[in-house]
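Lab notes, practical 5.
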Amino acid sequence: MSKRYGGYWRYDELEKHYKETITEVHRILQPKGIFVFKCQDIIHNHKMHSTHINVVNWCENKFRLKDMFILTAKHRMNVPQQSGVAKRVQKHARMFHSYFLVLEKT
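Output from the prediction step:
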């Protein structure tokens, strides 16, 4: 997926992008304007990142969380099974959902 659509090699790159986006939207949005932010929690380097919580925290003093929608995936990507290799052990829950955060400029 990342080869086809692009992606981030490190979580801090994604974090930087999101923070810059929040700052720019706050700059151009009128008071009481609505900002819808789509994100997904991820596991990177065996560490869980609750991105939707981080985004709400990054928006503190700029936006108020007005509503939140959780969208479940209709189709799930299969994890390729490698033959001849020791069976992988799942260490984290699979995440097949994303969040739409509805934020209002304060």
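Observations recorded by the TA: Residues 31 and 37 are 17 Å apart (CA to CA). The mean pLDDT is 85.
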